[in-house]
Write a structure and sequence with these properties.
By secondary structure, the chain is of the alpha+beta class. Helix content is 19%, strand content 37%. The longest helix is centred in the last third of the chain and has 26 residues, at 357-382. The chain contains five helices and 17 strands. Strands 1, 6, 7, 8, 9, 10, 11, 12, 13, 14, 15, 16 and 17 form a 13-stranded mixed beta sheet that branches. The radius of gyration is 27 Å and the shape is flat.
Length: 383
């Protein structure tokens, strides 16, 4: 995903422009085919869950598998449609709030009350105020829970400062698949820009009988136009919860998002967006603005930017409101919980792990010893 915009932008159609100063900155299974949106096993009537390993709905009681359509890809929606009345999500889901950490988890109406995936507490209560857009896209889980656990263990073993005992005995206290909300945006952009850049050069000067090199700046003006199409600029729709860790899980294959189908969330939870589509669109514009600014400057050879003004128009803006697959878990060490996250598609891991004070001290002392050695060497060389 890549990251100029001005004010007064019309995202609904053809270009309109504004201006602003640019910022710098396991068993045998029976195969069954049935219609979509089933929640009960057609063989025994038990609840079905989505199996990432099989890419099917699976009955954990009798082993029956039900096909899920993985070729029904999500479509882009014109941004103007977001502001119109749209179906909400409450008719097919339930929402639970955790009394311990405040997280809100969404599950299929057939699922029982969940354990909070963020802090592991079972102290959750059902709420009835789930409002807002229903997702139109979902990225299904492609790896199962066991694979996620193995990816987590490998990640821990690579943590340089994690205690040795923790590395050898680590296991998740809990792990649960959860869908995180996000918006993606497509947009054509057309930008005009002007600015002044500077390049260093050196002259020989003589003062007080001494000759030395003096650095100066030669300025030159720039102006022109720049066009670019942005595809699937991804903006997480949570305001603060673990966003820095989510960024480390990238990439997500958003081009292959499936049309939202309740089948995919059977057995999993989901989180509702905290930033709506218009707020996420503003964030996406800022990221596009930054990308355009960098691309404009990359066309020139320069050392400093005196100023750069960029006016950008956005057109043919479309969006997807999609759910991203993430395993949330936590491990315990010395009675403290450490959360971790696993990308449900590619297995990338992010999170926190304990730090060994002994390993940190050894590294500090080793660094000081190296600096001391360099100091001694310089002392003898400069005598």
């Amino acid at each position: 995903m890549t990251d100029d915009t001005g004010n007064n932008i019309d995202p609904f159609g053809d270009f309109s422009s504004g201006s602003s100063d640019a910022e710098f900155t396991g068993s045998q299974r029976e195969e069954v085919k049935v219609d979509a949106h089933v929640s009960k096993c057609p063989a025994c009537g038990a609840n079905l869950v989505y199996s990432p390993a099989q890419k099917k709905l699976h009955c954990e009681f009798c082993g029956t598998d039900v096909d899920v359509d993985l070729t029904d890809f999500a479509e882009e929606i014109p941004f103007s449609e977001m502001l119109k009345s749209a179906p909400d999500w409450k008719d097919e889901t339930r929402v639970f709030a955790c009394k311990n950490c405040g997280a809100r988890t969404i599950v299929s109406k057939k699922d029982i009350a969940p354990v909070c995936p963020f802090c592991g507490t079972p102290n959750v209560v059902e709420e009835s105020d789930l409002v807002g857009l229903k997702p139109n896209a979902v990225l299904p889980f492609l790896i199962d829970e066991n694979t996620a656990i193995e990816r987590f263990k490998k990640w821990v073993r690579r943590k340089l400062y994690a205690p040795g005992k923790y590395k050898k005995t680590v296991r998740p206290e809990q792990i649960k698949g959860n869908y995180f909300p996000a918006f993606t945006f497509d947009s054509d952009t057309f930008s005009s820009y002007s600015g002044r850049l500077g390049k260093y050069y050196y002259v020989t000067v003589r003062r007080n009988g001494k000759t030395f090199q003096e650095r100066r700046i030669r300025y030159f003006s720039i102006n022109g136009t720049y066009s670019r199409f942005f595809n699937d600029v991804l903006v997480y729709a949570n305001k603060s919860r673990d966003e820095k860790h989510m960024k480390k899980l990238l990439p997500f294959a958003t081009d292959y998002a499936q049309k939202y189908n309740e089948d995919f969330i059977y057995g999993f939870g989901a989180s509702q967006y905290e930033k709506d589509g218009t707020e996420c669109w503003s964030e996406a514009q800022a990221r596009m603005r930054g990308a355009i600014q960098r691309a404009v400057l990359a066309q020139y050879t320069y050392d400093i930017v005196d100023y750069l003004n960029v006016n950008t128009a956005f057109g043919k803006v479309t969006y997807k409101y999609l759910l991203l697959p993430v395993y949330i878990g936590h491990s315990k060490y010395n009675k403290k919980l450490y959360n971790f996250y696993v990308n449900g598609q590619n297995g990338n891991v992010a999170g926190k792990s304990p730090v060994s004070p002994v390993k940190v001290l050894v590294t500090v002392f080793a660094g000081l010893a190296v600096l001391a050695g360099i100091g001694v060497l310089l002392y003898f060389l400069l005598r």
